[in-house]
Amino acid sequence: MQTLKALTWDHPRGYNALAAAARLPELAEGGLAIEWDKQPLEGFESHPIADLCARYDLVVLDHPHVGEAVDANCLKPLEDIFDEATINLLSAESIGPSLSSYRFAGHHWALPLDAATQVMAVRADLLDGPAPVLWDEVLMLSQETGKVALSLAGPHAALSFLSIAVAFGEPPAERDPDLLVSEQVGVEVYDLLNELAARSPHVVGDLNPIGILGHMATHYDVALVPLIYGYVNYAAPERGRPVAFHNAPRLEIGGRPGSTLGGTGIGISRRCEVTPALKRHLLWLMSAEAQIGFIPSHDGQPSRREAWHNPGVNARWGGFYSNTADTLEQAYVRPRHNGYIAFQAKASALLREAFLENTPARNVIDRLQALYADHRGTKGGER
Fold this sequence. Notes:
Blueprint: E1 2-9, H1 12-22, H2 25-29, E2 32-39, H3 41-46, H4 49-55, E3 58-61, H5 66-72, H6 84-93, E4 103-104, E5 107-108, E6 111-114, E7 118-122, H7 135-145, H8 156-167, H9 183-199, H10 209-218, E8 224-229, E9 244-246, E10 264-268, H11 276-286, H12 288-297, H13 305-308, H14 311-316, H15 320-329, H16 340-357, H17 361-374
Helix pairs in contact: 8-9, 8-16, 9-17, 16-17
């Protein structure tokens, strides 16, 4: 019997389906056992990937870690395990950039288990009309109600900045990998965030997305969060009111919904012995059977496009998937060079401090660009 140690993150969406799949009789019949451990969301976002791969055979990771992983040589590329036809099929079946986000330095480094991006979260019963579509409407709602909250804790201040830049027509570091954002767009994005942050309810200021959504479901002081990573579980919570999810805001009608890709992938560490039984299990997790049936029924959030448009899946979860699929299809993929994770953490801290002190926009943009340049160099070269 082969026993593998595996690590995911501590939330029903990250753990329940994987743990239940590991108990399926087919695994034992194939001579395979997988023991899933959990780490907090904050560890998933920032813990060094090389350390995790030294201790685990399978690691659920976020795509910005792949540059760090490549430099540490701690993951096996999917091309060493699966043939080209299988990888091409996975790419075609995955929603948005769910698989391509794990491609770096000429290889793919994780299987797209779970798809997510920043979307708009709404307590429909606390609004007088429909959910806003444009950033101007979000700003007006904030001014009128004081119940528009931002997700700013951890890396999320920087992620919100990146997303609004996308909506404003300038995906960061995309045209020029050495330039985070132009001064003009950077100032516009900062000024919008700064005004929203000034009125964002303080009660959720230190909470991660899970904490904010849990608060929204059980309190009445947050009516809307314009950018927050979608968690399907809160569309039909066990306690409290349902949170409705909509596409991320746009600058103008027909514009791109600005949003930064999240989601998770399963990476295979260098220490792992890949057997036929393990390959079968991993590909089953990507299959229509698992992604449309098994994973959603065990609190998971699938990565397969077919599942996001499945009527049965949407009926169970209040239209969460169909209401936000457009945002996911157009989601922005962050830089993945070694050093990006450190930049993201420091940029978020810089922005939170700037909001508190109402720092002039141009000063903040100059400091963000300098910080980005400091963490841009390193090896790997590829975004």
